[in-house]
């Protein structure tokens, strides 16, 4: 795998619903205060003492729910704990079957056989700023499933979701490494397109947004959604106009088979890579003619020098048991987050309830303190609002049910999620 930051995850390729299950109860005991936060006491969040009991979902996987009082009022927490020291427990990516697609958490978990799970990364949910351009549903950050690289991260300015904490980027991931532990890391795309002895850096992989002047690659994992969105926005503004200078080249088994002046749509066949260029990247692609030999390589470079079998995007909120500096303390909302304890051997999956009486939620800073109160040393924020969903199998059941009340009134189809699996 190489050494230091140059290590890469070498999946490098060459191209030669349901009703809410358990109703939240306002009678759950409010727990002891964790401390003062943003002028109000955050009450609850610790699994010890007077906490309501844990319910077994499967060996090594437990669930509970309880109230906390945050600055905006009382909210309700749904919490899963996964013990990764149990050889039968693992985390994996819940996927709708393509990068550019969406599905509900309960349906993805049911189809993939997960015993529990939560929604995942922020995603390209709308395109009001680009009339006529269809949203892709694709996620913001990198994604890896079963050791296979699915996508890279969009530019920071092109993301959806709340502002990133200072010093963090869309390359941030939560992943489970070859050591079986969960980690927070950064995964940066590294790749190239080589033709006629000329090498062009690869600017994106299965992404709904490409950097300006770059070339992006789209594989079978992308799905059938239009690739036009990839050429919209800029490196500094998501709402910037779509590029007027684009080009697309289809490479099959290492040779160019077609070209187009505009990005297309439709499924990408096995053994095929579609290259999309904008501005200077489009100019590079125009030099390729049908029949030309092209090699496409890519990998994800880990900041920790680690290899991952599973990873998805979001952003860190807790490090070394301390909330990151600059976390928002004003905007309260329904949230989903992950906490890592015991060196990544214990994973807490948290989703707040979206029922009307609890919908005020928590600030990101309060979420970080909540995770720290659970004993987590690292914390990671996922998509929230109407996306926040937690599912788990009731004792003796064969399928998962939704445990929180999604704030949309029903499950929102999302780009991906974290599944808890047992075997």
What does this molecule look like?
The protein is mainly beta. It contains three helices and 28 strands. The two termini are 28 Å apart. The relative contact order is 0.24. Mean pLDDT is 90; it is low at 1-51.
What are the defining features of this structure?
disordered N terminus; 6% helix; globular; mainly beta; eight-stranded antiparallel beta sheet; 3 helices
Radius of gyration: 22 Å
**Molecular shape:** globular
Secondary structure: helix percent: under 10%
**Number of beta-strand segments:** 28
Quickly count the helices.
3
Low-confidence stretches: 1-51
Summed up:
The protein is mainly β and 423 residues long. The protein contains three helices and 28 strands.
Summarize the helices and strands and which ones pair or pack.
Elements lengths: L7 E2 L23 E5 L2 E4 L11 E4 L2 E10 L2 E11 L5 E6 L10 H8 L3 E4 L23 E3 L2 E4 L20 E6 L4 E14 L2 E4 L2 E2 L9 E4 L27 E7 L2 E6 L11 E7 L1 H6 L9 E8 L5 E6 L1 E5 L2 E2 L12 E6 L4 E7 L11 H10 L4 E5 L7 E3 L8 E2 L14 E6 L1
Parallel strand pairs: 14-15
Antiparallel strand pairs: 1-19, 2-3, 4-5, 5-6, 6-24, 7-28, 8-26, 8-28, 9-10, 9-20, 11-12, 11-20, 12-13, 12-19, 15-18, 16-17, 16-18, 21-22, 21-25, 23-24, 23-25, 26-27
């Amino acid at each position: 795998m190489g050494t230091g930051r140059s290590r890469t995850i070498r999946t490098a390729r060459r191209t030669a619903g349901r009703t809410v299950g358990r109703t939240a109860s306002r009678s759950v005991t409010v727990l002891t205060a964790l401390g003062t936060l943003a002028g109000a006491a955050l009450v609850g969040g610790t699994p010890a003492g007077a906490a309501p009991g844990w319910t077994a979902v499967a060996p090594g996987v437990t669930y509970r729910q309880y109230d906390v009082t945050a600055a905006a009022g009382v909210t309700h927490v749904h919490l899963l704990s996964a013990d990764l020291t149990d050889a039968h427990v693992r985390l994996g990516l819940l996927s709708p079957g393509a990068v550019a697609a969406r599905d509900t958490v309960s349906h993805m978990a049911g189809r993939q056989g997960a015993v529990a799970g939560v929604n995942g990364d922020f995603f390209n949910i709308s395109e009001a700023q680009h009339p006529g351009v269809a949203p892709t549903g694709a996620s913001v950050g990198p994604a890896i499933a079963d050791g296979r690289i699915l996508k890279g991260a969009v530019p920071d300015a092109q993301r959806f979701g709340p502002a990133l904490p200072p010093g963090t980027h869309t390359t941030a991931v939560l992943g489970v490494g070859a050591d079986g532990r969960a980690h927070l890391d950064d995964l940066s795309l590294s790749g190239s397109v080589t033709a006629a002895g000329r090498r062009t850096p690869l600017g994106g992989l299965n992404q709904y947004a490409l950097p300006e002047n770059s070339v992006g690659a789209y594989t079978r994992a992308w799905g059938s959604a239009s690739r036009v969105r990839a050429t919209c926005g800029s490196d500094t503004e998501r709402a910037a106009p779509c590029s007027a200078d684009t080009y697309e080249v289809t490479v099959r088994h290492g040779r160019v088979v077609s070209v187009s002046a505009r990005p297309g749509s439709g499924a990408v066949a096995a053994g095929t890579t579609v290259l999309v260029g904008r501005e200077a990247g489009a100019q590079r692609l125009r030099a390729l003619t049908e029949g030309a030999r092209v090699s496409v390589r890519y990998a994800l470079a880990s900041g920790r020098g680690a290899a991952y079998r599973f990873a998805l995007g979001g952003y860190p909120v807790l490090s070394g048991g301390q909330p990151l500096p600059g976390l928002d303390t004003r905007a309260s909302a329904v949230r989903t987050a992950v906490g890592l304890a015991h060196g990544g051997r214990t994973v807490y999956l948290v989703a707040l309830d979206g029922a009307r009486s609890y919908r005020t939620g928590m600030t990101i800073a309060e979420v970080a303190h909540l995770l720290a109160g659970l004993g987590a040393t690292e914390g990671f924020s996922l998509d929230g609002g109407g996306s926040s969903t937690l599912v788990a199998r009731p004792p003796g059941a064969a399928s998962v049910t939704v445990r929180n009340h999604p704030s949309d009134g029903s499950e929102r189809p999302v780009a991906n999620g974290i599944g808890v699996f047992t075997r």
